[in-house]
């Protein structure tokens, strides 16, 4: 359980009044509402350093209901979905007369608002790309009609090759082609001009739980009541399920161990990203448009900084005398005490070149010695 002291904790102590405070370890699960948020924040900070600070387009690639059960039984198809979405996007651009390659990030969602299994792909694509002669050109418009058909064609073609070759499967694929004459639906209304906003926008889709905690209205020990906004009617729907059924729906959306939720294509691909960055750094027009992606680096916030930012209170200030607390012990249920200040405290060196630092180190040394057991 998240923040259960029985699963380990860090203990802090005030050097003035010896007040102690335990901070229990978190579960580190992306499925946890709290830890998932921390995971997203760290991912966003890392991603901002790697993506180009240019306008991005948010695309959502969906599939018909008839395909959901097929993918539910074989989760490896989710990887095929992201590959096909990227391939369809690049081909749709190139057919329109440009050979530019955009930067593409994809994140898979497996749930809808009602918790039912509904896999779809969220894509973040740069509204520009590099041509074969290393020129950056804008991509202000996407041919959505063509993109929908390309998305349908590549996904169904890959599925046909993967599924067992039977008459029934062949008829099923043909049925999906005939029923969806305009292709599979793709939404691309959202546009973002900031790299940080774009990373934060797509990041919220990668690690959040299937249902926000505040949407659970009631739990009586047997049933769970929650609400969601219906995607079609835009109205609030209240639903009650048996506790076991509710848990089963949540478990259905836990990703397989080792599965990559985020994938990179085009200019953001592992093989081409370094080369792309080198080219764009010498591209005068691009650098003049936004130089921050080369020079501005962000740093992940620590646990303490996140608490101050979220709640406005410093968790390591003593509640009695307002002094900064020191790390006293770290306890792990399997390994016992893995850190003890009186045993493992660092040696504080005196800085002979600075009298100010000398007195400061002496003060810290006296504080540390005062904490040692007699």
Describe the protein.
The radius of gyration is 26 Å and the shape is globular. The chain contains 13 helices and 14 strands. The two termini are 37 Å apart. A 5-stranded antiparallel sheet has the order 8-3-5-4-12, with helices on both faces. A 4-stranded antiparallel sheet has the order 2-1-13-14. The protein has a 3-stranded antiparallel sheet with strand order 9-10-11. It has helices spanning 33-50, 68-73, 77-95, 144-162, 167-179, 195-203, 243-251, 270-281, 284-289, 292-295, 303-311, 341-344, 355-371, and strands at 9-13, 20-24, 56-61, 103-111, 117-126, 128-130, 136-138, 186-192, 216-219, 223-229, 236-242, 262-266, 326-332, 336-340. The chain folds into 3 domains: 5-27 and 312-371, no CATH class; 51-210 and 255-282; 212-252, no CATH class.
Features of this protein?
single chain, 374 residues, alpha+beta, five-stranded antiparallel sheet, four-stranded antiparallel sheet, 14 strands, 22% strand, disordered C terminus
């Amino acid at each position: 359980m998240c923040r259960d002291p029985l699963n380990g904790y860090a203990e802090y102590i005030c050097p003035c009044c010896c007040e102690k405070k335990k901070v229990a370890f978190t579960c580190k699960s992306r499925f946890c509402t709290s830890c998932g948020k921390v995971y997203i924040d760290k991912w966003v900070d890392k991603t901002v350093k790697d993506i180009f600070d240019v306008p991005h387009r948010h695309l959502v690639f969906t599939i018909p209901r008839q395909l959901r059960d097929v993918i539910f039984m074989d989760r490896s198809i989710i990887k095929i979905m992201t590959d096909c979405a990227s391939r369809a996007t690049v081909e749709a651009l190139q057919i329109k007369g440009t050979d530019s390659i955009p930067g593409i990030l994809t994140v898979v969602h497996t749930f809808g608002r009602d918790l039912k299994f509904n896999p779809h792909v969220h894509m973040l694509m740069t509204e520009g790309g590099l041509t074969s002669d290393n020129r950056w050109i804008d991509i202000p418009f996407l041919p959505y009609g063509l993109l929908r058909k390309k998305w349908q064609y590549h996904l169904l073609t890959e599925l046909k090759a993967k599924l067992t070759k039977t008459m029934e499967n062949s008829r099923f694929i043909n049925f999906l082609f005939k029923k969806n004459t305009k292709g599979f639906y793709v939404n691309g209304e959202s546009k973002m001009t900031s790299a940080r906003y774009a990373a934060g926008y797509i990041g919220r889709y990668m690690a959040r739980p299937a249902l926000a905690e505040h949407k659970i209205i009631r739990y009586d020990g047997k049933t769970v009541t929650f609400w969601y906004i219906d995607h079609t009617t835009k109205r609030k729907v209240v639903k009650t399920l048996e506790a076991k059924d509710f848990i089963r729906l949540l478990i259905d959306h836990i990703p397989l161990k080792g599965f990559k939720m985020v994938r990179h294509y085009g200019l953001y691909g592992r093989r081409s990203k370094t080369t792309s960055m080198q080219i764009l750094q010498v591209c005068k027009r691009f650098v003049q448009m936004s130089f921050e992606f080369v020079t501005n680096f962000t740093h992940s916030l620590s646990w303490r900084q996140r608490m101050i930012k979220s709640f406005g209170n410093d968790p390591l200030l003593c509640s009695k005398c307002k002094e900064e607390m020191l790390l006293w012990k770290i306890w792990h249920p399997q390994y016992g005490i893995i850190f003890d200040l009186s045993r493992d405290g660092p040696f504080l060196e005196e800085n002979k070149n600075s009298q100010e630092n000398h007195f400061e180190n002496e003060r810290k040394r006296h504080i540390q010695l005062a904490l040692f057991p007699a």
